[in-house]
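Risk register update: the risk of archive-format incompatibility is retired. Evidence:
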Amino acid sequence: MANQFVNLPTPSANGAGTPVDVSSFGSFKTLVVSGDLAAIIAVEANLDPLQAGTWVAVASFPNPGQVTIQVAAHWLRTRVSAFNSRAGGTPEVDCGGSDDGTGFAAIPVPAADGVGAAVDTSSLGLFKSVQVGSAFRGTVLIEESEDGTTAWGTVMSFNQPGLQSSEFTAHWMRARRVGTPTVNPGTPIANVGATNDQGGGGGGGGNSQRFLYHATGAEGSDFSVNLPVARANDSYLVSGTCQGVNMIVDFDFPDILAGDRTTLLFRCITTGALTAGDTIYFEAVDPT
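Archived output:
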């Protein structure tokens, strides 16, 4: 196993950058955003080989910084919003990761209520990301089976376009639609990506996410923290513990204003400003 690195082109205006093929990477990807950041930078993923369907944001940077995410993606690209041409230039966005490689398969989705054709995913890795793209109504369930006949279990549920990750073995996978209206049902596109690079569990299914945050010193006492993997919804709980800081701080994780807590990040307020090198242990978990 070796490391590899790519640059993610970033436009000097609002809009999306050129997609980069990251199928040779494993699931873990370290993203670094640097330079004049007079904008909000989102990193988006797509699992479809033709880049069809909906791109899904997997990280967001309101400030320069670094985060390690876990997603089995075919493509990554940047998206710039809130760009201020008078305040800065073009930021640099780089991605690093292992060369473990990721495999992919399309999952046929029926046009109405019912199940699509089963796909043999026995050759895919343990850590799986599933993306359901394009506008649709109703619910798309992703099911897996080891025998491909009678025993099927639901592993993920999508009420709107999105991306979820988890660890499970599956000989067969298929999509089931329920609650699909006859008017404007939409045509969802589903893909699965998977790798065997010893993933550590995804954001869906109620799994706890535990990770270390290394402060840059630019956070102050009110800042956003990127989650390692996008969660299925924004109803999770957050806690924090000092793991080596210049000054002991207490934490608050408000969920009052729009954007305080999303599937990609959460807002953190501390009793004192962080300094460069401070390390915090965060945990995000679904309520029981």
